[in-house]
């Protein structure tokens, strides 16, 4: 066992509303030695599997190379016949969100943005793992579909498709067949799948813009496609700014499944991605506008303890944007007129990274060591999708710090104490190792990884045997209620995860334990690739992210941010 002097901290807010770490006293902490952690090779093995989940979620006409034997063509009439004035009649393709057959653009586009971010940073690691072609194919399947959901050739639009398919938000009173009420293989769906459009949806349009902008960097060598993505991103972002509104305020399904609390964070996130994709300084000026940063920060604070602060999710992208903009400050240091906000975001990023560390008690942890970023809310179970995003951010930020200045030890200050980047990576590893089986249940929460993983995954396609029999809407209910394991293993699916007591129930009907999602797996893939391989030879790719940005005068690296000044 090891003894460390650790600074205990409290949190207070300064006049700008920023969370500050304040050292109060020193205490001795005892850290017990733990069993050896999985090798980097196990992260690569898990990465292979986690990517396979996206193959299992594909909608539309599948190629022979989908590698998921129990899936086939499905929902080939999505969008047809089109509603009068609809922007498109072909909405075939894309991804099913989770264990159902609904296609939600809001979480799906965030999932694709995260995957693109991971490819831009870790292209060489994907190549070393022989997964680069696969991940690019996964992203393109998503972006090809997004391009169908609005008039992508226009410069100005007045609507976008937000959803295909329908959930059941009335507790089951309505027995009209839909994608939640029915338990059917997607290949067998015969009921009507409505198309939902929105005309005031700043958050959705901006997230879709971020997704296309990030993908345009991934596909920069395919100039025609990259150009098409950039144009679509600009059109979507203009729409998001011209007509203000939350996409979920006009849709009961969206509000129930993926309610967006604000669009200000998407504004910062999307304008950051557009600035990197285009090199146009007007986007960077917007991303660093103090008023926009203030709106994005305070829109997460509906109550006094900021439940979303520092938590990257499909609803809140501010911390992701802050990390991306800190990347700019560390490597290019553009100075005036961006410096005030960039310095503030750098400080904020440091503070958030400190808050993830076990030395501090900003976030609770389960006895097994899983960080509780969802604050244990009854309305927000499903902890793992938040954990994987934090693990990715901590790892990529540690790589930024190492790449930024090789003349001195890389790390960050939390209050008066200096922590090496190794501490950030250790945080990420302990969280991912927990998910891969190093937990009180000795359960791998990634299906098909390890010897002990969930067998009753909440997933229609994986739980119904593919036979000559076509099960009806309610005919499939017997499969939902079956106590037998799923007939098919949905390889790589990360389930929702354990409760705050490390408990887990492998029960198909309980989606809060056993349902996987696109968003969860995207964060998992990003974290796994970041942790995989040899960090001494395979760090981040410093330059590709900024390839569209005009050259700036070389400047010395900025001073380290102080944790106690905004």
From TrEMBL:
It is an enzyme of class 3 (hydrolase). Keywords: Carbohydrate metabolism, Cellulose degradation, Glycosidase, Hydrolase, Polysaccharide degradation, Signal. The active site is at 458, 506, 515. Its EC number is 3.2.1.4. GO terms for molecular function: cellulase activity. Residues 1-33 form the signal peptide. GO terms for biological process: cellulose catabolic process. The keyword Plastid does not apply. Residues 43-528 form the Glycoside hydrolase family domain. SUPFAM superfamilies: Six-hairpin glycosidases. It catalyses: Endohydrolysis of (1->4)-beta-D-glucosidic linkages in cellulose, lichenin and cereal beta-D-glucans. Pfam families: Glyco_hydro_9 (PF00759). PANTHER family: ENDO-1,4-BETA-GLUCANASE. Belongs to the glycosyl hydrolase 9 (cellulase E) family. This is Endoglucanase.
């Amino acid at each position: 066992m090891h003894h460390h002097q650790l600074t205990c901290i409290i949190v207070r807010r300064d006049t700008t509303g920023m969370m500050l770490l304040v050292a109060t006293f020193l205490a001795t902490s005892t850290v017990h030695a733990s069993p050896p952690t999985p090798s980097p090779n196990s992260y690569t093995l898990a990465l292979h599997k986690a990517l396979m989940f996206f193959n299992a979620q594909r909608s539309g006409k599948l190629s022979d190379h989908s590698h998921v034997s129990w899936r086939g063509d499905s929902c080939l009439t999505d969008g047809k016949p089109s509603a009068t004035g609809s922007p498109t009649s072909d909405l075939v393709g894309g991804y099913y969100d989770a264990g159902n057959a609904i296609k939600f653009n809001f979480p799906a586009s965030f999932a694709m943005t995260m995957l693109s971010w991971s490819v831009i940073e870790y292209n060489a690691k994907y190549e070393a793992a022989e997964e680069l072609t696969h991940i690019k194919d996964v992203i393109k399947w998503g972006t090809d579909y997004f391009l169908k959901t609005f008039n992508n050739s226009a410069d100005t639009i007045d609507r976008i498709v937000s959803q295909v398919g329908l959930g059941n938000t009335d507790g089951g009173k309505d027995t009209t067949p839909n994608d939640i009420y029915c338990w059917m293989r997607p290949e067998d769906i015969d009921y009507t799948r409505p198309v939902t459009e929105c005309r005031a949806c700043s958050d959705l349009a901006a997230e879709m813009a971020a997704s296309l902008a990030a993908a345009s960097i991934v596909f920069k060598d395919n100039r025609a496609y990259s150009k098409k993505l950039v144009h679509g991103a600009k059109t979507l972002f203009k729409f998001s700014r011209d007509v203000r509104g939350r996409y979920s305020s006009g849709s009961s399904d969206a509000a129930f499944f993926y309610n967006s609390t604000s669009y200000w964070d998407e504004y910062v996130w999307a304008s950051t991605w557009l600035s990197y994709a285009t090199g146009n300084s007007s986007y960077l000026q917007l991303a660093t506008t103090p008023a926009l940063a203030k709106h994005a920060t305070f829109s997460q604070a509906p109550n006094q303890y900021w439940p979303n602060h520092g938590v990257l999710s499909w609803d809140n992208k501010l911390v992701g944007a802050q990390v991306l903009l800190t990347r700019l400050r560390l490597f290019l240091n553009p100075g005036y007129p961006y410096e005030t906000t960039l310095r503030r975001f750098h400080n904020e990023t440091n503070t958030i990274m400190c808050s993830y560390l076990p030395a501090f008690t900003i976030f609770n942890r389960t006895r097994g060591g899983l960080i509780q970023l969802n604050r244990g809310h009854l309305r927000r179970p499903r902890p793992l999708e938040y954990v994987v995003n934090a693990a990715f951010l901590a790892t990529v930020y540690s790589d930024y710090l190492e790449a930024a200045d090789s003349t001195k030890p890389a790390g960050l200050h939390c209050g008066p104490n200096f922590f090496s980047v190794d501490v950030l990576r250790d945080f990420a590893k302990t969280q991912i190792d927990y998910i891969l089986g190093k937990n009180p249940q000795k359960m791998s929460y990634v299906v098909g990884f390890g010897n002990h993983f969930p067998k009753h995954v909440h997933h229609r396609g994986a739980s119904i045997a593919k036979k000559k029999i076509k099960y009806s809407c309610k005919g499939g209910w017997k499969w939902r209620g079956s106590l037998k394991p799923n007939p098919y293993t949905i390889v790589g699916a990360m389930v929702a995860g354990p409760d705050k007591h490390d408990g887990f129930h492998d029960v198909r009907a309980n989606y809060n334990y056993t349902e996987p999602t696109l968003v969860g797996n995207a964060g998992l893939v990003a974290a796994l690739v970041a942790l995989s391989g040899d960090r001494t030879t395979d760090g981040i790719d410093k330059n590709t992210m900024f390839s569209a940005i005009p050259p700036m005068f070389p400047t010395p690296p900025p001073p380290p941010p102080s944790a106690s000044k905004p």
